[in-house]
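User: Can you help me understand a structure? I only have the sequence.
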Amino acid sequence: MNMASIFAEPKQLPHIPRVVQELMESFRGDEHSLDIDEISGKVAKDQSLTAKVLRLANSAHFGVPRTVATPQDAVMLLGFGTLRTMVLASGVTSAFSKIEGFDQNAFWKDAFSIAELSKWIAGFTADTDKDTAFTCGMMHSVGNLLIRMFYPKEAASIDQSEAMSTSKRHMLENGQFGYNSADVGAELAKRWKFPEIIQDAIAQQYLPESSEEYSKEAGIIYIARYLKHAHDQNLSEDEIVAGFPLQVADKIGMNVNKAYSDLASLGELHSGLDSLIED
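Assistant: Let's start by predicting it. Here is the structure, written out as tokens:
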């Protein structure tokens, strides 16, 4: 069950539309070199992708003043960054087939929550792009899905062990496979030609627990996962502050005092992407 076996047959791996890979180029710092009209036109040629993007753009969350009828409208009314987020989310969520016995809707809702929290954290972290942080957060656990696709029985066994112990999932995965979902997710991101900043964020998301070096975006994911857990546990603001991973926040240059003053807004954070996974 080495990791190479997961990637041995490329045809069995989830595939994303070419336009999604092209949009990822904009995270390399060359957004302005992209022809936005050309990108919008390519999105429009994919009927399934276009339908999902338009459903998102016309949802109440975005509150546009008139109907969004085309991807070009979405750029004009919502901006390139929002269109990019919609296309990426639509392409990635559609890439994975249904996994029997696993609640993928809940999985993606969690991923979108981590993404929105990552974007929030980036707002208090110097020299950090919010959209990049969002994408890193959205992608952070795709390796979990891939493991479930290839090793469903082992993943189910880890589910049971996780529920019955205090061990963290990535440690259980390391014990079972010799690698974890972060390793798998980073390799998938590499195969999808995602930028290194996203590959590194996924790969290094558990390193804040060790003394190893990790990227700023990996630290953001780590804190986002802490805040998601705190929210799920209904912790008070005082409890969140008391347990806040300050060492990680300090390392990534996060202004925690300013963030603390905005903790009340966490309950109102919504990505607006949940309609992608509604039946």
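Now, to help you interpret it: The mean pLDDT is 92. The chain has two domains: 11-95, 105-279. Let me know which part you'd like to focus on.
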